[in-house]
Amino acid sequence: MKMKRRDFLRRYASTAAAGLGAYSTLGGLNLVNALANDSDYKALVCVFLFGGNDSFNMFVPTEENGYNDYAEARRNLAVPRGSLLPVDAVASDGQRYGFHPSMPEVRDLFQQGTATVVSNVGPLLVPTSRDDFLANRVPLPPRLFSHNDQQDFWQSLELDKLQSTGWAGRMADLLGGLNANRELSMNISMAGSNLMQTGVATIPYILSPAGVVAPKSQTLVDENNRARNRTAALDLLLQRDSGHVLANYYRETLRRATSLSGQITEVLANSPPIQSGFPQNPLADSLQMVARMINVRQTLGLSRQVFFIGYGGWDTHGNQNSRHPALLRNLSESLAAFYRATEALGLSDNVTTFTAGDFGRTLTSNGDGSDHGWGGHQLVVGGAVRANQIVGQMPEIRIDGRSDSGHGRIIPTLAVDQYCATLARWFGLQNNQIDDVFPNISQFSERDLGFMS
Q1: Is the pTM of this model over 0.70?
Q2: Where are the beta strands (DSSP E) in 127-193?
């Protein structure tokens, strides 16, 4: 039976401070290491493309009829047919497709069976056709085509204007007990606080590409022992019960952050380097730190981890023909380098990387770029991906065609709930937990899209 939201909150609010335990030294982490079950380790790595990727230029029809429709719709934004990097798989429309010429590494991953394209994913509350949309006869996600609102919906899948939890946070609330280490969050963010990883009992632990973001009290210059004295006073305060629930929660959060910053810094400093030739760009830097954290999973006592990386710049209203290829190149090189790192760690089957983003972009050109759209293609990379698939139903790439809601904004054929629930099921979420985490999934007949083995 589906759990009501208030029951979910009540059930997990009582565990918000649970598990904030005794692993305060590296010696304590050695005990956690002994409890970790590495054979069952799994990690999800979300690469969120802030701004909205023009994925209809990332993955393009290569056969004459399909390409001609695409070129007619995209006009000055169309990628030359001869430059596309074809793949062997055939899509649902009977067409063959190819990757943008800036993405040879991802094309190679696809060809070797470790990457897939999930076609035309986007925010939906129920299956929606062009006729449904134009007649206003089905409910729609809130405030379509708005950056902030669609980012929130992708991450939370909830309709409330002020969402409080995200799907990875709710999932961590349910699965957090799989980790022997209850002090370090299952959810680790390389992009600061985010809604996707926030649950009732879960907040993400924040890292930077350089490593631990230490509490300010640990980074102050020590003049005349003032910082040392300040630290001693803070330590004393952290040991006291204030008698107030919120103050105690803040105290415990600060204590945990202070403790973890030292632990993780030491663990990373004592871990071997990752040798897989990462390129030099912000996304690669974040993925390299994720690889380092995965490498120390046993020492930290972690069997499940969800990482969140933000990679911006995809809002290509202008100068798209030069900006977008550079973004795709960084994405392709970085995803491939990270996959090689998981291979070197012997964990390529245990780590799945997936893209997400605000929305797709319009088929129509504004003269120098594309505008805010709706559905779009996403990438999934990892050894557990089912090989040589183009998942889902390809839209018709035609202005005012049966997939167009208007102005070249393509209506999704797969919901974000379906896409993320498929990943969550592989991660370990049970069927009876899916509805608690993905509130709209019951409206769709396919609860598992089948792209994970």
Answers
A1: yes
A2: 187-189
